[in-house]
Design brief:
The protein has about 70 residues and is α+β, with helices and mostly antiparallel strands. It is about 25% helix and about 35% strand.
Length: about 70
């Protein structure tokens, strides 16, 4: 899934394994107990999006239980 916000050249797209280093960096800056690389890699099968504008600026992960 790719969504483009033309005004700001922002892209929201599905995360890939290549994105995980930047996602980890954001997570470590944002939370006192950040996730590990393995935790994020496992969530790639869920709804895991990144927000990108020249570089990844944020991420969204939705895990579905059950």
């Amino acid at each position: 899934m790719n969504v483009i916000a033309a005004r700001r050249s922002m892209v929201i797209r599905s995360a890939t394994e290549k994105d995980l280093d930047r996602v980890l960096e954001i997570d470590q800056l944002s939370f006192p107990t950040p996730w590990t690389h393995h935790c994020f890699k496992v969530t790639l099968k869920d709804i895991f999006l990144v927000i990108e504008q020249k570089e990844i600026m944020g991420y969204y992960d939705l895990q579905i239980a059950g």
